[in-house]
Write a structure and sequence with these properties.
Layout: H1 2-13, H2 15-54, E1 65-70, H3 74-77, H4 79-93, E2 97-102, H5 108-114, E3 121-126, H6 128-139, E4 150-154, H7 160-165, H8 172-187, E5 190-200, E6 212-214, E7 217-221, H9 222-228, H10 240-248, E8 258-265, E9 311-317, E10 319-324, E11 335-339, H11 346-357, E12 367-369, E13 371-376, E14 384-387, E15 390-393, E16 397-409
Parallel strand pairs: 1-2, 1-3, 3-4
Antiparallel strand pairs: 5-6, 5-16, 7-10, 7-14, 8-9, 8-13, 10-11, 11-12, 13-16, 14-15
């Protein structure tokens, strides 16, 4: 009893040190628990991957070759470490021949993919920016290279596509996501998704530039600008996105006045005006890539007079977005054009921003379109838009939907599609 009383007096007399000690003990125990759970996950994943590696392949062919486009600078230079720790071992155990190419600068992924040869699948190990560059390089080619499946290892700071294909999170949940993404590549289940082709509208005397391709969204306005500033509030840790809305909701430097004109054509299921037929290519490695592609009917003779009709809208808003509907159940492929409110009060802006961080947003009726021409109103200051979270200067552009042109590895049991 005396020892207990003495211990209590010591704690009371040194309460500051005691609090620090308890906090350190708690975080130490939590870290050990997390490492133990990750260990169990990796053991189970390795056992499953080995089953694929032990399976027999025909003597006349070599192991399947996959090329990894790795951005080592992604997620504050943690991407390479996480790839080597959680993804690469599984791919090797499954018997895949892995060729890792590291990007060295911005735009390097486009250059790599445009000249890539001798692979059977391309895996993007990085964030939204690396994936956007990869599909741009892939779709700029004229040799039907988009028939090769694309894998996504969500190792970046922003992983919009990866989080839709595989349930995301932090800590143990993040490792689960990486394991699931790696196993989707190993199992070989694929699905076709839409992309957006973004072309600058050429003025008289200008040299046309090459198009950019995106798979998720084009964003312009105060909400995009606020999220782009979140790293300035790193001191708030996981709450930095919430802090960004609190500290920027009143600033005039955000793009509160996005104005201009859009001309859009309605969605079309396929006709002689817009049909893009995907050629069928047979490969000797089709056993590795199960064919989920259905036979496409030749609709080139179908006439749809409404397909080429155009409508014009003048707009002024604080939130302009064009999104694919890749992760929604739709009968006809289309782009979703969202024109948000013109003015937000400070409280409305912060509360709406927080809702979006949590995965929901205000109910705004969208415009469904196949093509969209954007003519922004000229502004004296430099204005940027986000294309798959990458920043570009605002210019007159044409956005065209390309249905089912990207073939992605996915998990049919757990993917959010």
């Amino acid at each position: 009893m005396e020892r207990i009383i003495k211990f209590g007096k010591t704690i009371r007399n040194n309460w500051k040190k005691s609090v620090v000690g308890v906090v350190a003990l708690y975080y130490g125990a939590a870290t050990l628990k997390e490492k133990y759970e990750i260990n169990l996950l990796m053991r189970a994943a390795c056992r499953e991957a080995v089953k694929y590696g032990d399976s027999l392949i025909p003597t006349e062919r070599n192991p399947t070759v996959v090329t990894i486009i790795l951005n080592p600078a992604a997620n504050k230079r943690k991407a390479k470490r996480d790839f080597e720790k959680y993804c690469e071992p599984l791919l090797h155990l499954a018997g895949l021949q892995v060729d890792v190419i590291q990007t060295t600068s911005e735009g390097n992924a486009k250059e790599i993919v445009e000249t890539l040869r001798g692979t059977e699948a391309i895996i993007v190990a990085g964030g939204d920016g690396t994936f956007s560059e990869t599909i741009t390089g892939l779709l700029r080619r004229n040799d039907n290279a988009n028939q090769f499946p694309l894998g996504v290892l969500p190792l970046g700071r922003t992983n919009s596509l990866g989080n839709n294909l595989f349930q995301g999170g932090k800590g143990v949940d993040k490792v689960k996501q990486l394991i699931e993404a790696s196993m989707a590549i190993i199992k070989g289940n694929t699905i076709w998704k839409d992309a957006m082709k973004i072309e600058p509208l050429v003025q008289d005397g200008e040299v046309p530039s090459r198009p950019i391709y995106a798979i998720t969204s084009l964003e312009w306005g105060a909400f995009r600008d606020t999220l782009a500033k979140r790293d300035k509030y790193w001191i708030y840790g996981p709450l930095r996105e919430y802090a960004s809305f609190i500290f920027n909701g009143y600033k005039e430097s955000l793009n509160w006045n996005c104005s201009g004109v859009i001309n859009y054509t309605p969605p079309c299921a396929g006709c002689s005006n817009c049909l893009r037929k995907r050629p069928e290519i047979k490969r000797k490695w089709s056993f590795f890539m199960p064919n989920t592609q259905t036979t496409q009917l030749d609709n080139g003779s179908i006439a749809n007079p409404d397909c080429a009709t155009s409508q014009e809208i003048c707009f002024k808003t604080s939130d302009f977005r064009i999104r694919t509907r890749n992760f929604e159940n739709t009968n006809i492929p289309s782009l979703s054009v969202v024109l948000g409110k013109n003015k937000y009060t400070y409280s409305e802006f912060v509360s709406e921003g927080w809702r979006r961080i949590q995965g929901s947003e205000e109910n705004i009726k969208s415009i469904e379109a196949r093509t969209v021409e954007l003519q922004p109103k000229e502004s004296g200051s430099e204005v940027v838009i986000g294309i798959d979270r990458e920043e570009f200067e605002v210019k007159p552009i044409k956005v065209t939907l390309l249905p089912n042109v990207i073939k992605l590895f996915y998990n049919p049991d757990k993917a959010v599609i």
